[in-house]
Design brief:
There is one protein chain. The chain is α+β, with helices and mostly antiparallel strands. 32% of the residues lie in helices and 22% in strands. The chain has five helices and seven strands, in the order H-H-E-E-H-E-H-E-E-H-E-E. The protein has a seven-stranded antiparallel sheet, with helices on both faces. It is globular and about 35 Å long.
C-alpha cells in the first residue's frame, strides 16, 4: 500500500505536504513507546492497539496525542538543544495542566536516533496540532477513541 493510499482524514495529503516522502515513511515505520520500559505500550501508525484502548479507558480519556520537541523540522540538533526543547515542552504541559507521560519513538532501521516525546491524554486535535507547530514539528501522532495511532502532518 502506498503512502497516498493510507492517507486518512486526519492527515494532509502527502502529495501536497512539504514533508518528504522518505521522512513520512520514517515516521510511519517508527515504534512509539509510551511509559517506562517495564510498563511501556508500543504503538505503530495505523495499527489498532488493545493495550492503548485499555489505557485510554483507565485514564478516562477518549483521545490523546504524541508530541516531541526533538529535532525541529527533522533537522538533527545537539543533545543539549533537544533536552532544552523537551524540558520546554514539559513546562508547557505542566503550566497548561496536561498530564504528559514520557514516551520515546525509535526507528527500527536505526537511521534516526531515538527521540523523547510526550503522550498527552485529553488534548484535543486542534491544540495538539498547534502545540506541534509551536515546537516546529513536521507531524504529530493523533489517537482517537478507536485506539489507532495516526500520523498527522503539520506542514
Amino acid at each position: 500500500m502506498t503512502i497516498a493510499m493510507r492517507t486518512n482524514i486526519n492527515r494532509k495529503n502527502p502529495i501536497s505536504s512539504t514533508v518528504s516522502g522518505s521522512l513520512i515513511e520514517h515516521y510511519t515505520h517508527a515504534d512509539y513507546r509510551i511509559g517506562s520500559a517495564a510498563d511501556c505500550i508500543t504503538l505503530k501508525i495505523d495499527q489498532y492497539s488493545e493495550p492503548l484502548a485499555q489505557f485510554l479507558v483507565t485514564l478516562n480519556q477518549s483521545y490523546a496525542a504524541i508530541i516531541s520537541a526533538y529535532n525541529p523540522y527533522s533537522q538533527l540538533v545537539s543533545d543539549e538543544e533537544n533536552v532544552v526543547a523537551h524540558e520546554s515542552l514539559r513546562h508547557f504541559l505542566t503550566y497548561h495542566a496536561y498530564q504528559g507521560i514520557e514516551s520515546v519513538h525509535t526507528d527500527p532501521a536505526g537511521v534516526w536516533p531515538a527521540e523523547k516525546s510526550f503522550f498527552i491524554p485529553g488534548i484535543d486535535i486542534h491544540s495538539a496540532k498547534s502545540l506541534g507547530q509551536q515546537f516546529n514539528q513536521n507531524a504529530i501522532v493523533w489517537i482517537d477513541r478507536d485506539a489507532i495511532p495516526r500520523l498527522v502532518l503539520l506542514r
